[in-house]
What does this fold into?
Amino acid sequence: MLTAAPAHAVVGEQAKDDAFAFTAKLDIGGERSCSAALVGEQWLVTAASCFADDPARSLTVRAGTPKVRTIATIGRTDLTRGGGSVVEVVELVPRTDRDLVMARLATPVTGVAPIGLGANAVLPGEDLWVAGYGRTRDEWVPDRLHHARFTVDAVKSTSIGLSGKSPDATVCQGDTGGPAFREIGGRYELAGINSMSGQGGCFGTDESVTSRAAANTRVDDITGWIHSVAYRDVLKQANWKNVAHLASGRFTNAAGAAAKRRMDLFVIWKDGSASIFPGSDSTDPKTPFSAEHKVAKAGSDWQYASVIAAGNFAGSGTDGLFVRWKDAEVTEYGHLDLKGAHNEKTLKKKRQLDPKNFWNNARLITVGRYSGNSLRDDVLVLWENGSTSLYTDIHSKELNGYSQLSAAANSWKNATQISAGEFNGKKTSDLLIQWKDGETSVFPGVDAKGYHGRTKINNTGSAWKNAHILTTGAFTNNDDRVNDILISWNNGNLGLYPDVDGNGTHGGIELLK
It folds into this structure.
């Protein structure tokens, strides 16, 4: 009843422009055509049968570079139009127990959201969308993505049996590897990958063939494996000994209830280049980021940044940056995204233009929610003399919302790093301080009136004395509670301490060693 033709679009409706943009078209050596689904910014998941030498006999695929040049088109519902991305597939990672392979793209895809991977098991009787670029009823090589609704007839250990909801719903050649997915709360969640079909009603199929049944490869039970492959090398590809500055924020995805991924990481490297590591939607705390996007080349103006911190200054869904430059100029950027920093506002002119500019004495800076409103838009400064100050509501008040938190103190000169966090559940943010001797302190619920107690989360002499740079963020969950600490160590390793609270850290994770 079923065939395993390697070049298996769905006979159904044409997809509207930009609909199901995570569906990809694969051109495999100019000989085969398949579909695929974008599951990470640099990864597709598709059928192994697309790459097998003879899928009727074996689905075995060699891991590594594809045997023939393979080109993926992503985010282009109509293939005759521009837009989207056209990227070469440079690596295959096969799954040995089913008709499935992951395909790594040469460069990350921008402007197209990967399809979600959830933990919901596929159930008999459930309805799924199926999409692909294969044949239709009357087209041999369609130029447009098609989709149709199917019902789950049976669920096996590695496969799903499907039947169309309408008489013309059929999986055809060219659809192999395309996604079967559900819609939950306005987002799509991958359930399976097109594998085999009876192909009744497809162009070129003998009229005596009437079966429209289809079999899909399950992915709902291996989301952990998919994530582990998709995010495995994101951090390894960078030299973390060359970090100059770190800042965490929601630069590429919205905050609040609209947040679908974890916080992003902005990195300025010692050569003046800069990168954004978008937060992943993985449930594995070992894979907090999904890709690296270079947003500035070596020698860019970021080489002149002295201190940076991220916050939500403009009151919109995404974050920007507060920067003190080496010439003491102070700048607010309302937004930072994959195209760079935007909405620049100079808060203090360069020192040579303003002799009264004392911001060259601002040694450490962090941004938090210290005025009690919902925005992370308050700047806390530790000065060279050990005193601290708070500037609230930066976007509206600029540098006029000033209050002194503490007078000059020699002991505070021993602070090496500061960062704002939400460790204790107070109405305002806490202040994390890393000291030279390895001790780490948290000052809970800081506000314009000052400090209200102090707790120690690391003792003197702890390994944290080897921290090169640290930042706090929401790196293990997609909410906005900033209670994870990411550390770039002096030796180039990366560590993550999730869910830090008033009782301290509760075990660390080696992200890179």
The longest strand covers residues 85-95. The longest helix spans residues 223-230. The helical segments are 223-230, 394-397. Residues 1-12 have pLDDT under 50 and may be disordered.
